[in-house]
Design goal:
It contains two helices and eight strands, in the order H-H-E-E-E-E-E-E-E-E. The protein has 132 residues and is of the alpha+beta class. The chain has a four-stranded antiparallel sheet. A hairpin with a 4-residue loop joins strand 2 and strand 3. Keywords: Signal. This is Spore-associated protein A.
Amino acid sequence: MRTHGKLATFLAGAALASTALVVGAAPASAAGECGASYTKVGDYAIGSQGRLEVYYSSSTGKNCAITRDSNPNSGFKAVHISVAGASGWADSDSGTFTYYAGPVYVSAPGKCIDVSGHIGTASTSKWSVHCG
């Protein structure tokens, strides 16, 4: 009897540990990627491959952008952000990522922003958006 009790305890612990590993392997949520104070203000298609997501935090006054793959794979992804009309990007992230590129940030109080997202060969850019 005592051996069965120890075995049951061991198996229950192993099941709990494997569940924790699976849960821990999930990608972060969008709010977690930019920060808890960020709210989504824009969502744009990048062909059929994914989305360019734009977030804003009223507590920091910053915009954040992420390029998210709708069919996660280890392929090229990029995201860029800047104050509208600036020469060059204020913040960029690019490389071979499974889930998303970013987050990237820009502070643009009272101004519009430019954002661009790329997944593989597909891309989208939005100019002078999310003004404020």
